[in-house]
Amino acid sequence: MITAVVYSESGGTFKTTMTANVAVALQRMGQKTLVIDLDPQEGNLTSLFDVGTQRSDPDADNLVKHVLDMPDGDFDDLIETSDEGVDIIPSHDMLGDFTSNLEQKISYETGMQNMSREEYPRFELLYELLWENQELHEEYDAVLIDPNARAEDLLYNAIFALRTLVAPVKPAGKGNLSLDGLEELVGNMENELEIEIGLSCVVPSGVGQTNAHQQYQQQFEDTEAFDTPVTIGNRESLMDAMWEARGSAFKVVEERWKTFERGGEMVSESGQRRVRDREIETLRRLYVLARFIATETFDTAVDPVMELDIQDHENRTIDLREDETVEATSA
Hints:
Layout: E1 2-6, H1 15-28, E2 33-37, H2 45-48, H3 63-67, E3 80-81, E4 87-89, H4 98-113, H5 125-133, E5 142-146, H6 153-162, E6 164-169, H7 179-193, E7 198-207, H8 211-222, E8 232-233, H9 236-245, H10 249-255, E9 258-262, E10 265-269, H11 277-297, E11 305-308, E12 316-319
Parallel strand pairs: 1-5, 1-6, 2-4, 2-5, 6-7, 7-8
Antiparallel strand pairs: 3-4, 9-10, 11-12
Helix pairs in contact: 1-11, 5-6, 9-10
């Protein structure tokens, strides 16, 4: 089964859009896919896929209530399906108070069971819910998590549950991950959780043509510490359009979404975007990334061919069977 947390310590790495694109690519490859949104901030995956209408309702059932074993309904009722066929457990405002609610649960249960706080399995709760209680491996081929960024209980529960990281990184700039930083990050998490964590791959994203960006990209391509199957070029227009299309970059291109000025106002409409070869190539790289995660990390056979049904335009085909090897090159 394919299980991955798409995680970066840094902002601006396209973490959420990458999660969405990998999820849709896996779904199109024939893998029934579930994405769990653990980011309580605005502009999260829930917003991107236009789901979670009750995320601000304090009385609504949500994932946190199920993780803390105080649900208000069936787990299956939490799951919504996007227009592109990917199942989603939406974010909820209660995620922002996860640690404080967890502390209350720990205080109560340790008192009742005469257990020390150190003995309480605080990082194992999501794991138990997904695999032992709900047995999601019986229903899904792939489960992805778009987590919160801070290293706290919610993130650690996500990593303990899925055990594998996909790490988008942004070239250069203060606060971004370095090669040593990635190894240290994984090592610290393994020590904290007392488990082995796999790093599926690193994905440099937003890479431009400057010397600094190219040197940074080359660093990742040359290291043997982890895999860099693709590099995603600077495609802000394509990624930004995902928020207007309420879906993946594949949807943006197929429905030709574009934001433009009309009568002094900015509007977004389908059927307006030009079909650019460089954006088709970016879609191909995203498909390569999803295939790498599926086949190289989890040894799962997937459909290597995707047909792009582009509105009012000839269809295009992404066929990865032509690739003898996957090399990291800039889209």
